[in-house]
Design a protein that fits this description.
The structure holds two protein chains of two kinds. Chain A has 21 helices and 13 strands. Chain A is an alpha/beta fold. Chain A folds into two domains: 153 residues, Aspartate Aminotransferase, domain 1, CATH 3.90.1150.10; 251 residues, Aspartate Aminotransferase, domain 2 (3-Layer(aba) Sandwich). Chain B has two domains: 148 residues, Aspartate Aminotransferase, domain 1 (Alpha-Beta Complex), CATH 3.90.1150.10; 252 residues, Aspartate Aminotransferase, domain 2 (3-Layer(aba) Sandwich). Classes of the chains: A alpha/beta, B alpha/beta.
Chain lengths: 544, 534
């Protein structure tokens, strides 16, 4: 097909040459010209044909790329041993088939190996355990107890607050039955056993909205209709990632950040995280310049940035974002036309004198474009009820709310829990006492713990929120690198039996930083912890 | 090919020829040859250069396509509204005029989810929840027959709760340990106590013929996330599952929304009493494969929702053979296992696997307490799998849908109260059967036939005589009349992807016995007008 026009365009020209032929000088001109002329026809065809071929090649490759991938999956480690001998496995299975069904005959027809899991979860299954999760597991196996197991591992890696559990317990002991069943029993059983709205009961949303504005010191009023409730803040973050970004898009996240984000944001959504490094020189506070740099780099790499995820009060550092930073962030987001996800789950756990400013407050005050701001909240930290799995998405974007409401079918809160919490949060006296007492206790623990570390020569970044201190142990690490940091972490976990979170798990750019969660301890534990750290620091100093 | 051959042949000659120019006869050879030679160089360059250009063109188009689509809808009138907005004197605000600013967009996948409901299933549910029927306070409200919920035994649950709630929460002695056991972080895939209790309950419900291994369980906040999690684990974006129709309308959301997995309907017909045939399965498999979609499994509900029939043991064997032959997974949704009321015997996939030497790795069972213990509000669901990789992944994924520890505690003590469980199962079975008989008999007097069923909370009724035209349109017209004139919310067959028009799913366990005459009266009114019209 394609060759025929080629030869046809060429054929008239030799005839022309024949009539003119003979002149040697003319030839010098003609021959190259002829080449050009011929080349012209060739140029068109020579362009179209390879293009078409190249296009089909790409098409072919695209089609077939999937299949080799699948073969890789089934060959993935863990299944290797079984795939190697599919036929023998098959033979071995046959004696088991005692049944004489007609279709058994069909089975040997096609090759069958063990059935594989999907490619996207094979990564999750293998997922190399980060120190964060390794440490948590170690604690579970051998938890410290003052009396029963004084040599166990002390848990300081889980952001959990046990300081005020007694208050919750007292309340529950007095109110649990009335809270769940109400007083008119017949009526309310229908209210807890039957299907409920997936995104939470309206009464519960009202109660949560009230609690949120109380925690944020009345500075904001949350509209219950803008709230979507989920089973914990983890799914709240995942749902927002689904709603704001498509697979392959990215979020900017200032480092160091909460290690769980890597799972919550990336695993199922296919969204990427672009790190925005913060440094100790700035007290790990976010700078817009770094944000801008990360944004441009990501853009250059062809990645579409859909938003910023911040934690305020930050986890792990525990510092707060100033009003000015929040304004700059909003401006930045508007300039780039991206979203802001503000994780304010620790809003009620501030313990310093500094005042917490919620993103909700800023967008309340200003006439800014509210549709790009989404707040994540929950009761796991502020009410110390992580076991109850209550998370909140607060957004002013109707589309996000509509999609999130529908997606909560996959992570809804059980009705008895909601009923119980409605009456707990409606008990204004209890809530007020809890918030005040909890803040006092956090403050006291924080001062004691940081003081203890200081005595050992370990400095912490000044923090005003959360259950942790972010300690600089770079003096104790053998080499100023991630490797050195992990070596120290290993020593802390296995020799001192302290589970702490190394900075590298939080993607901190500087080695030697560690997150110590002190709210899981009692005051009596602090000397034990300090003694154990001292032991390690002596070992480290001996070695160096 | 022929072209290259002709080039290679004359290759050495041009050099010879060019040395003796001037001869006209030689020219005849030289000129075309020269062209070919130049053409050869040209052929290489002419291939490479356009290829490269074409490649860059594609790259350019790809890049610009995404950025265009971003700013497309919001771009009109970008500058003027923004000027009005900026009242603050922040230093950075002068930067704003630089970039193109419009309202920020949500992701395209969320966009399709955020769209208002278009399925009659969800429209009906919304309508019924806005204006619910109540015998006394709202006798003209919409009667809910569209939601599979069992309210027949609430009295038993209420009684148990009022007697045992405080004890189960706080421990009998009001112990210290119990409180931290519910407020602190728990394993995201469920506590061991609940898994043990569930194992006991499941084998009791399934007739005591199977035993379940707690270590193979992953607990989720309802069966809905259990199905979604399994889809994530078994299929990649663009893969597909085979699903026999009619199927539960929620599958379209559970399976497809976030996972990007497709559902391929395998049609069952009324002539077979909507029982699945392997031939139909095979046909659907081959057709899908031809279209280039990869099938990763079969998604079954047994007992079937909406029809309420069971898969026979023979059928389960055939399915397992089919799955092995095609090397695909089987997800068996057995959430209705405990709602049996007929004499037929329910056979769980787990039982078949127990008795034979099958490759268990490909079988995954979904279960939950929403139907069998009528506790949908508690959100307790389960994945029971024999595949270690699936279990490992599912355990990690339950961080997104874990059950509240308080609820777990409550359910554990409920399930361990064997006296209560026995009483509940027996009473519930009797009441469901009684309601079903009454309801089916009522429909029969109206000339409406139901498919044979032996489990579940609904009957699958053939109203094809009442529809104005034998098509999906006719069916939806009747559904609309039932919802808006008769004020009865039923699920039309088309929402369940039934291939034959005129079938409706009516759930009878949300009713009280006194409501049945009301429902029948309302249906009769619609039936009368329908027959008048036709």
């Amino acid at each position: 097909m394609k060759q025929t026009p080629y030869s046809r365009t060429r054929s008239p020209e030799p005839k022309k040459e024949k009539t003119r032929g003979g002149g040697g000088t003319a030839m010098r001109v003609i021959v190259p010209l002829q080449g050009v002329v011929q080349g012209r026809g060739g140029l068109v065809l020579g362009s179209i044909i390879p293009c078409a071929l190249f296009y089909f090649l790409q098409f072919y490759l695209n089609r077939h790329r999937n299949e080799p991938d699948d073969e890789n999956e089934s060959n993935s480690p863990g299944q290797n041993q079984t795939t190697r001998s599919p036929s023998s496995g098959q033979l071995a299975e046959h004696p088991g088939l005692t049944r004489n069904l007609s279709r058994v005959l069909l089975s040997p027809r096609s090759p069958r190996g063990p059935v594989s899991v999907s490619g996207r979860v094979s990564g999750i299954v293998k997922d190399a355990e980060s120190p964060y999760y390794v440490g948590l597991r170690r604690v579970k196996e051998d938890p410290y107890d003052e009396v029963d197991n004084p040599n166990g591992v002390i848990q300081m890696g889980l952001a959990e607050n046990k300081l005020s559990l007694d208050l919750v317990k007292d309340w529950l002991a007095g109110n649990v039955k009335e809270a769940i069943l109400g007083n008119g029993k017949e009526l309310t059983i229908g209210g807890i056993a039957t299907y409920q709205p997936f995104d939470g009961l309206m009464e519960f949303k009202v109660a949560v909205a009230g609690f949120m504005s109380q925690v944020m010191e009345q500075a904001t009023s949350c509209d219950p209709s803008q709230i979507v409730l989920t089973s914990g803040a983890t799914p709240a973050i995942e749902i927002l990632s689904f709603c704001l970004a498509d697979a392959g898009n990215a979020f900017l996240v200032p480092t160091p950040y909460y290690p769980g984000f890597d799972r919550d944001v990336k695993w199922r959504t296919g969204v990427e995280i672009v790190h925005v490094p913060c440094r100790s020189a700035d007290n790990f506070s976010l700078s817009i310049a770094a944000l801008d740099r990360a944004f441009n780099q990501a853009k250059k790499r062809g990645m579409k940035v859909r938003g910023i995820i911040i934690s305020n009060p930050s986890n792990p550092v525990g510092n707060l974002m100033s009003q000015e930073t929040l304004y700059s962030l909003l401006d930045f987001a508007r300039e780039k036309n991206i979203h802001i996800v503000s994780n304010e789950i620790l809003a009620g756990c501030t313990h310093g004198k500094e005042k917490f400013v919620s993103m909700a407050e800023i967008i309340d005050l200003e006439d800014v474009d509210r549709k790009r701001v989404h707040i994540v909240y929950g009761l796991s930290k502020d009410l110390s009820l992580p076991g109850f799995r209550v998370g909140v998405i607060y957004s002013l974007n109707e589309e996000v709310l509509a999609a999130a409401k529908k997606l909560t079918r996959f992570s809804s809160i059980s009705a008895p829990t909601q009923r119980l919490l409605i009456s707990m949060l409606s008990d204004a006296k209890f809530v007020q006492t809890f918030i005040t007492v909890n803040r006092e206790r956090l403050q006291r623990m924080y001062v004691q713990f940081v003081g203890g570390l200081k005595k050992l020569g370990i400095e912490c970044i000044k923090s005003s929120g959360g259950f942790y201190c972010w300690a600089n142990m770079s003096g104790l690490i053998s080499s100023y690198s991630e490797k050195g940091e992990l070596k120290l972490w290993d020593k802390l976990l296995n020799i001192a039996k302290l589970n702490v979170t190394p900075g590298s798990s939080c993607h901190c750019i500087e080695p030697g930083w560690f997150r110590f969660c002190f709210a899981t301890l009692t005051e009596k534990d602090i000397p034990v912890v300090m003694e154990r750290i001292q032991k390690i620091s002596e070992i480290c100093k001996l070695n160096s | 090919m022929t072209l290259t051959r002709s080039i290679q042949y004359p290759n050495p000659e041009p050099e010879v020829q060019t040395r003796k120019p001037g001869r006209a006869t030689a020219m005849r050879l030289i000129v075309p040859l020269q062209g070919v030679v130049q053409g050869r160089g040209g052929l290489i360059f002419g291939s490479l250069i356009p290829c490269a250009l074409f490649y860059f063109l594609q790259l350019y188009l790809k890049r610009h396509r995404s950025s265009n689509s971003r700013s497309n809808p919001p771009s009109p009138s970008t500058s003027s509204p923004n000027l009005a907005e900026i009242t603050r004197t922040s230093s950075r605000s002068n930067l704003l005029s630089r970039g193109l600013i419009g309202p920020v967009r949500i992701s395209s996948r969320a966009m399709s989810i955020a769209k208002p409901n278009d399925s009659p299933y969800y429209i009906g549910l919304d309508k019924a929840s806005e204006d619910p029927y109540d015998r006394i306070s709202n006798p003209d409200g919409v009667i809910q027959l569209g939601l599979l919920e069992n309210r027949l035994c609430f009295d038993l649950i209420a009684k148990w709760m009022s007697e045992n709630l405080s004890d189960s929460m706080m421990g009998r002695e009001g112990g210290d340990l119990s409180i931290s056991g519910i407020t602190t972080y728990q394993p995201v895939d469920g506590t061991m106590e609940l898994k043990l209790a569930m194992a006991g309950f499941m084998s009791r419900v399934m007739g005591g013929t199977v035993s379940f291994e707690p270590s193979q369980m992953v607990l989720t906040a309802g069966a809905t996330p259990a199905i979604e999690t399994l889809c994530f684990c078994l299929a990649d974006h663009g893969n597909a599952f085979l699903v026999p129709t009619p199927y539960y309308p929620g599958f379209d959301r559970d399976v497809k929304w976030r996972t990007g997995v497709e559902l391929i309907p395998v049609h069952c017909r009324s002539t077979d009493n909507f029982i699945l045939s392997i031939t139909a399965l095979d046909q659907a498999f081959n057709q899908t494969r031809k279209r280039g979609t990869k099938i990763r499994g079969i998604l079954l509900s047994n007992p079937a929702n909406p029809v309420g029939n069971l898969l026979s043991r023979e059928m389960l064997y055939n399915l397992l053979d089919f799955a092995r032959e095609k090397n695909i997974h089987i997800i068996s949704d057995e959430i209705f296992a405990g709602t049996m009321y007929g004499n037929e015997e329910f056979v769980s996939m787990a039982e078949v696997l127990d008795s034979e030497n099958f490759d268990k790795n490909r079988v995954h069972i979904v279960y939950g307490l929403s139907k069998d213990l009528s506790l949908p509000g508690f959100r307790v669901g389960m994945i029971y799998s024999f595949n270690e990789n699936v279990l490992a992944a599912a355990r990690k994924l339950t961080r997104f849908s874990s059950i509240s520890a308080l609820t777990q505690r409550l359910v554990v003590s409920m399930l361990l109260d064997t006296r209560f469980i026995e009483e509940y199962i027996e009473t519930n079975k009797k009441r469901v059967q009684n309601m079903r008989d009454l309801f089916v008999a009522g429909l029969k007097t109206l000339g409406i036939r139901c498919a044979d069923s032996s489990a579940g909370f609904c009957c699958w009724a053939d109203m094809s005589k009442l529809i104005p035209t034998y098509s999906e349109k006719g069916e939806l017209e009747l559904w609309d009349k039932l919802l808006n004139v008769a004020k009865i919310n039923v699920t039309p067959g088309s929402a369940c992807h039934c291939i034959e028009p005129g079938w409706f799913r009516c759930c009878f366990t949300t009713l009280a016995q006194e409501d049945i005459p009301v429902v029948m009266e309302r249906i009769r009114k619609v039936a009368d007008t329908s027959t008048l019209c036709s």
